[in-house]
Amino acid sequence: MAETLGSLAALLNADLVGDSQTRITGVAGLDTAREGDIVFAESARALAQAIASPASAIIVGPGINGSSKPLLRTAHPKYAFSRVVNLFYPPKPVKPCIDPTAWISESARIGKDVFIGPRAVIEEDVQIADRSVIQAGCYLAKGVLLGADCRIYPNVTIYHDCVLGDRVVIHSGTVIGGDGFGYVCHDGKHEKLLQLGNVVIEDDVEVGCNTCIDRASFGSTRVGRGTKIDNLVQIGHNAEIGESCIIVSQVGISGSSKIGRECILAGQVGVADHVVLEDRVTVAAQSGIPSRKRIPSGLTVFGSPARNIEEFKKQWAAYTQLPEQMARQQALVKEVEQLKAQVAELMAALKRVPISAGQV
Q1: Dihedral of the CA atoms 202, 90, 23, 41 (nearest 10)?
Q2: Torsions phi, psi of 199, nearest 5?
Q3: 207 CB-contact burial (10 Å; exposed 0-12 / middle 13-18 / buried 19+)
Q4: Does pLDDT of 162 surpass 80?
Q5: What does the alpha-carbon distance between residue 83 and residue 332 come to, in Å, rounded to a whole number?
Q6: For the chain, how big is the Rg over CA atoms in Å?
Q7: Which residues participate in catalysis according to the annotation?
Q8: How far apart are CA 241 and CA 247, in angstroms?
Q9: For position 322, what pLDDT does the model report?
Q10: What is the Cα–Cα distance from 22 to 29, expressed in whole angstroms?
Q11: Which of 221, 203, 211 is nearest to 251 (CA)?
Q12: Dihedral sign (CA 237, 246, 301, 303)
């Protein structure tokens, strides 16, 4: 496949600097680019690397200049690059079929042009809408509802009565709808609380490998439209995740917490129970949010316990100076002790000086 730089500029509504007839045959990273490739440079340093590479053209953002190679300049260069990647490497179509080794209940309802792979199990009353793909070894329990154009990768387990919208992607090893972690201690024993709810995953959500989203005790654990969840994430029972959130790997969200729209939880963030994050909150990596804490809209927080990142920076700056401050404190304490000793000696000496009646 080949495109001209002019045709790509038209597709992306980008400004073209250079020869519109430059032939583009592929896309690549800065380290692997070859002649004919188009690359993406988001900084002056990356631009220098791109210019030095064999790449034939570069996608850049506003204000980046000084290239000896043709440029496509756009306000959203990374998004433009992703569109070019999709143009050159579109998803491979899956031919609809049902593998003979798959087990499908007679009461299941399967839409048009669906793919069901080897040894998949589709239980009673499952509904799968048109053009969805269920790959090898998946298990869809009784009453699962799966929307159109979904892609469920191998060895995914979806427990009973869970609901997935359209264009949902679930990667291998993920479990949707396992029991929430609910127990009550009685007479020294932990008795299990039945988890009677389900999980609802709205349209255009993508969930990474080996992630667990627990079913609700009552009602639904919910993941909002367009949210993207990385690998190895745990979402507890009755949690509610808003629309268009980003949840990075090894995040743990405890039960009954509520995450607003467009929030970002970076790697290894821990969220305790009944926490509320309002819309567009960003939680920096390895931060911890205590139980029942509320974080206001638009705030970026860091640390454990998490607090406003500007406040954290000041505290961290002071923390990094602690060794020097402690050394100064110890020196001052020593100096004070020496002064006290000198004063004590002076007072003792004064007591030994004889005083005559006339001096008094």
Answers
A1: 40
A2: -120, 135
A3: buried
A4: yes
A5: 64
A6: 31
A7: 237
A8: 10
A9: 86
A10: 19
A11: 211
A12: positive
* pLDDT tens sequence across 303-329: 999 999 888 888 888 888 888 888 899
Distance CA 30, CA 37 (A): 10
Residue 90 has pLDDT above 70, yes or no: yes
Residues in the chain: 360
Which of the four pLDDT bands, split at 50, 70 and 90, describes residue 65? Answer: confident
Average pLDDT, the chain: 94
Q: Do residues 22 and 35 lie in contact, with contact meaning Cβ atoms separated by under 8 Å?
A: no
Other C-beta atoms closer than 10 Å to the C-beta of 63 total: 7
Q: Is pLDDT above 80 for 89?
A: yes
pTM, to two decimals: 0.86
pLDDT in tens, 91-109: 888 999 999 999 999 999 9
Q: What is the pLDDT of residue 360?
A: 53
Q: For the chain, give the secondary structure using H, E and C.
A: CCEEHHHHHHHHCCEEECCCCCEECEECCCCCCCCCEEEECCCHHHHHHHHHCCCCEEEECCCCCCCCCCEEECCCHHHHHHHHHHHHCCCCCCCCEECCCCEECCCCEECCCCEECCCCEECCCCEECCCCEECCCCEECCCCEECCCCEECCCCEECCCCEECCCCEECCCCEEEECCCCEEEECCEEEECCCCCEEEECCCCEECCCCEEECCCCCEEEECCCCEECCCCEECCCCEECCCCEECCCCEECCCCEECCCCEECCCCEECCCCEECCCCEECCCCEECCCCEECCCCEEECCCCEEHHHHHHHHHHHHCHHHHHHHHHHHHHHHHHHHHHHHHHHHHHHHCCCCCCCC
Quote the pLDDT of residue 357. 61
Taking CA atoms, 279 is separated from 3, 226, 297, in Å, by: 41, 15, 5
CA dist., res. 199 & res. 240, Å (int):
10
